[in-house]
Amino acid sequence: MKKYLILLFSLIFVTLLLSCAKEHKEGLLWKISGNGLNAPSYLFGTGHGRGFYLGCSILDSVPGFYESLKNTNQYIGEYNYYEPDTLNTEMLPADSTYDKFFNKEDLALLDSILLVVVGQTSKKYIRKPEVLLERIKGYLYYEYKKKEKTNKDIITYLPMDYCLEELAYHRGYKIVGLDNLIRFNYYAHLPEGSVKNVTDSLIVMLRNRTFEKEFKESESDTLSTRLFDAYCRQDFNEFEKYFNQRNKKYDKEYEERLRKDPKSKHVLHEISTVRNHKWMEYIPDLINKKASFIAVGLGHLLGEDGLISLLRKEGYKVEPVN
Fold first, then answer.
1. Eight-class DSSP state of 127
2. Residue 293: CB partners within 8 Å, gap ≥ 6?
3. How do the pLDDT tens digits run along the chain, 322 residues long?
4. N or C end of the chain: smaller count of CB under 10 Å?
5. C-alpha of 161 from chain center
6. Is 96 exposed, middle or buried (0-12, 13-18, 19+ CB in 10 A)?
7. Which residues are 35's β-sheet partners?
8. 3-state secondary structure of 77
9. Cβ(295)–Cβ(307) under 8 Å?
10. Is residue 202 within 8 Å of residue 110, measured between CB atoms?
11. Category of 188 on φ-ψ map: left (φ > 0), alpha (ψ -120 to 50) or beta
């Protein structure tokens, strides 16, 4: 009887170990091999979007991250920020300058923040207001989180994708932007608004500090908080679960917009599913020619239309790096 009990407890223990290993084996970093590749490439899911201002702060905790990066010599991201064409899609129209839209007091307020965030004033950093809004919100969120204890050590005002590309650039890697290849302009897929309307929103946000209310509302959204926590824990399966729940919520919003304006594009479909398939027209050739480190938003790795599934359908072996 004693032998049976020992055997039973041993089996239970081994089962628990295997279940724990299974639960945690899928993280942010994946190895691509097989299908004739001379050397493996790697696929990394970045965290970006609202509230995901992590910079490079969690990379030390990603198993095998720096070793995988070292074993490649080409960096493939969503955008090549060093390629002039990318910047052209972000620039203000040639006849527009910010002093046309702001009074001296508001322009001084904008410039004081831009000097901290990008090291330039609006006279030189002549990006579209949507781009300014994204960069400034990152900085303001960083300042907002510094006042709190939660996650203050991992929040920065740089999006992770900027940070990774800069890391690759200083290592001398060739940099490829997938969106540059497919001629995709993210800002063209956002709801349209005139430069005047967006700049008005920007300065109201800065002057009246409405961003604090927005951040609080975002953090009170349980789904967004769980999504962020799952990413920081590098729990691929949990992230996918909350990501799908959030997308269902967005789907309802887009369906309502399509009812009101039939010409309106389904943004979520355009910036994820369609984009993934277009990227796959280039990725196999890129990784066949050079061992590559691919870094795109983690959402692009998920589901049947995600890069993991699409690469496997092409015959590649894609497995998590532990």
1. B
2. 41, 42, 44, 68, 69, 72, 74, 75, 76, 168, 173
3. 444 434 433 433 333 333 333 344 589 999 999 999 999 999 999 987 665 666 777 898 999 999 999 999 999 999 887 776 665 667 777 777 788 888 889 889 888 888 887 788 888 887 877 777 777 777 776 676 666 655 444 445 567 888 899 999 999 999 999 998 998 876 565 554 556 677 777 787 778 777 666 666 666 567 778 888 899 899 999 999 988 887 776 656 655 655 555 555 555 667 788 999 999 999 999 999 999 999 999 999 999 999 999 999 999 999 999 8
4. N
5. 6
6. middle
7. none
8. strand
9. no
10. yes
11. alpha
Q: Give phi and psi for 175, each to the nearest 5.
A: -115, 130
Q: Pairing relation of β-strands 41-46 and 292-297?
A: parallel
Angle at 226 between CA 221 and CA 232, to 5 degrees: 130
> Closest Cα partner for 117 from 144, 153, 157, 89?
157
Residue ranges of alpha helices (H) inside the chain are: 2-24, 65-70, 84-88, 104-117, 129-146, 160-170, 178-182, 195-208, 210-220, 222-232, 236-260, 267-269, 275-279, 283-289, 307-313
- Residue showing tokens 């009990």: 5
Query: What is this structure's pTM?
Result: 0.74
